[in-house]
Amino acid sequence: MWRSALRTHLRVLRPPSRQYALDVSPTGSLRKKIFFATPSSIFETYREHCPHPDLIHLETLLSVPHSNPDEQSAATSTTEDSWVSIVQQPTLASALDGVNNVLAHHASSGSGTRLRLPTYVVLSVLMKEPTTPAEVFAAYRLAQSQPPRDTTELGPLVMLLSAYWLVKHRMYAPLRGVVLRTLQYKHVLHAYQISLFLRIIGQADTSRELQKMIFILLDVAVKRELDLGVRTYRVLLENPAATSAVAKLVEYHMRSRRYAPNLAHTRAFVRIYGRAGRRTMAARHWRRIRAAEYYGPKAEYAMKRKLQSRMLEDYMRSFKNPKKVNLYIKYLLKRTARAMADSEASQSVPPPTLPRPDGISHRLWLQTLRTAAETTSVPEEELLAKFNAGKDHVGSPQKTLFAYFLVIKGLVRRRKYMEANRLLEDVLPMKDQFDGPKLTMAVEALTLANKPTDAFRLLLEFVRKQESAPSVASEHVQDVTEWKSAVYSPRGPLVDTRAINTFMICLFRARRPDVVFYIWDTMPQVFGVEPDSATFAILLKAARYARKFEGALQVAIADFGMGRILPRAREAELNPQRLGRDEAVAGLEALLASGERRVTGFWRGERAGEVALRVAWQVLVGNWPVLGTFTAPFQAIRRSADGPAASPITDLFHSFAGGSVETQAEMDTARGSARPYDGDGRTFFSIVPDDTAFRALLDLLAAEERAHQVPLVLVWMRYLRVWPSRDTLATALVYWGEVALEGPWVQRVREWRARERGAEDSEYIRGVKWVTKWVGRRNVPRKDETYRALARVRWFRDSQAIGQGE
């Protein structure tokens, strides 16, 4: 405690930093003129810093009034006149139709050469606002068709305009492709280009997927020592979804470019680090605010009680122990009383006082309640006693509601579901004041208390309320003349993907994978949301869990393609994604009301694992077709370690069919999944798989006797720049060892034959070396991670065997 007091009394020295770069660079004008990125502002900024002839020509053509030629004259006109007509089209749909007509006319001429669109034509198409995701995807594919070598100077502008529309329509999978394509220009990118790209992503809706892309672009700016500007930092830091990794990289970039954080930056650092539990880093910026050691003049409003209490609350979120919170509050109370008694000291140096010298504020009490709720070692009785002692003195109904949900969340963490539902019944009459997190918490508490029907009805109520209410401010600001106090970030809907993910996780924990599959198929119709990476991971885990409910005879019949003799399901159960909204809602209500009925482990009339892997290939190869061209850097020597035990007849059939590890069905699945949509036209542009999703995919591949595809999944992760955790790598190496290692004698014979062919290492050792080269020796799994992965695999297989034996 004395160390904390000593640090508080120490005065933070002002670093020898500057607020603006010493060297005159194009980013100077960018900081002063561009606040919110729009297509027109992006184009104007790019033209100022890159006076390319195509940009001047495009600006000239856009200023000419549009004339609509008839179809006959358009067909007989020259190519240049066709380009001018496309540029002057008023809408994106008409421009895309003009491009298709020109390309079709060129193909029918029989010239045999490929017609390449001029860059200014592509830019004119991207300047037009799309109205549907299909138009956004068409414009994106048009931008991707431009060869990088032909657009060295204007290529980044093409990528910027594509990224703007993809971000606006929440199409994050193609956006990941734009980021990867932009990295091809990373050696020629200028500071203002990276700054605009970061500004586009940072001003979008809050999403964790975007934060990972921001991290990639920030890494390029750090390595190339590009000057981004203070307002770009503010856009990144004030995004509500900003992670501690992004904040840490922003702080490192500011320090390397000799920028001193101003008050807005410092407040954002306290909020981000406090939320992430980084107490030391949050304390450093908190002390800087209290000592007024930030860049710029001393702000008087920063020392007001309300703002100080708010920033203190953000800092105290980093405390993970209730005892430390109480000690820190006692220290602040003593310091406040001492400062109030000594008037001279209070006038010379404003102390970090509390709002009242005789007690803590409502905000700080809520923070202590939050810390106690998040610490599972605190007994349930102590948590409820702390809540009951202060709930009547909180003040406003909003704060009281917030306190209720803090305790409800703490009880759910302690698996006290009935107690949590008793508190939830007290606040359900106030559901008109629920926001997204509160609604999500209510759904979780109801579902885990074995009330999934009530949770579903609550979600439907908010969906209808959301549809009837006027739309939220989700359009980007077009005319902004000055920087506002808060960075533009549209408010998200109440029923979002996160709420549905929580509902699906609770149903999965309740052993209802059949409901999880149904929700995946009907999410757009029922809830009006699209899946994300977390939804994708839940689906793969549910498919793996559903294998426990498969019968050996049913599996053998399905493997031999004789599923037609099994009892046929209804058409609605086979294709729920084709249902209308009312039918989908009625089907989900009937499924939830069915209770503890027998789950068969089948989905859409097929084995759930096969359908889930087909969906996974559709998501990955459909969103990034280049993944379908990759090959594994090392090969397996057999399909699976537990294949014969799971289905001996199938294994015997595969052995007679041939020695190829890859089956014809798997190759057909991979080739047929190169489309960005499924058979019903549904797209998955909002899914950008992360480390958790890829680990679930590895588990499902091993459960479905396709562990030989583990190397291919690792190659996909490396291409998509998904950094694997040690647990994921340990899981992959465990599965890889099962299909790449034999017994001691057989393994020695294989190594002897490999040395005869000139290959020194076995397939397993080649895999380990490839992983080490990818992530580095420090990030290779250690013994603890490997033992944990082995225990995890063994536990699931034992539970699966018990489930099939029931």
TrEMBL record:
Organism equals Lentinus brumalis
* This protein's name: Uncharacterized protein
Q: Which InterPro entries match?
A: PPR_rpt, TPR-like_helical_dom_sf
Domain of life, per lineage = Eukaryota
